[in-house]
Amino acid sequence: MELRGIKFTTIGLSLLVFAISLTQNALVVNYNNEIKTASSLEYLFIGSVTFMGGGLLEEIIWLASPLCLLAIVLMIKDDKRAVLVSLIASALAISFSFWHEILGAESGTMAKIVSFELGYYLWLSSILILTIGILIHYKMTLKTTLQA
Asked: Where does the chain cross the membrane (predicted)?
């Protein structure tokens, strides 16, 4: 497959999986002994303002999505920084799977994570697809450059 095809297949597949993830639940949490299910779309919208409620770490994890958008823009421009940006996004998204609690309310009360749902795994997959595609693209770019 040519470089351009890899680039746009990677971006298209990553965005498709991300869009599907938004239709799914992301987490099940236990907040004050009440089980609540949170949708991926809810986290996408609320995530950008979590720092105002004291959720600095949650805000950092949320940055994985905007970093992916930046990586896509950089990849389109053939900027090698896309590799680093996508690796950072992947690390953030993966690190979230090790969390046991998440901010449950602006009061600082924590909610226990009961389970990660399909939305989280699809979101993570979309980021990993992007990262792997960027790595393949730049490996092939480097190979083409060295052959020329």
From this structure: 49-75, 82-100, 120-138
pLDDT at 50: 62
Higher-pLDDT residue of 52 and 142 is 142
Whole-number Å distance between alpha carbons of 14 and 131: 9
Residue 65's Cβ-count burial label (10 Å; 0-12, 13-18, 19+) is buried
- Among candidate residues 144, 1, 4, 13, the one with its CA nearest the CA of residue 75: 4
Provide the Cα torsion 65, 67, 71, 72; round to 10°.
30
- State whether residue 73 is helix, strand or coil: helix
The set of residues, in sequence order, having a beta carbon less than 8 Å from that of 131 and lying 6+ positions away, is: 71, 86, 87, 89, 90
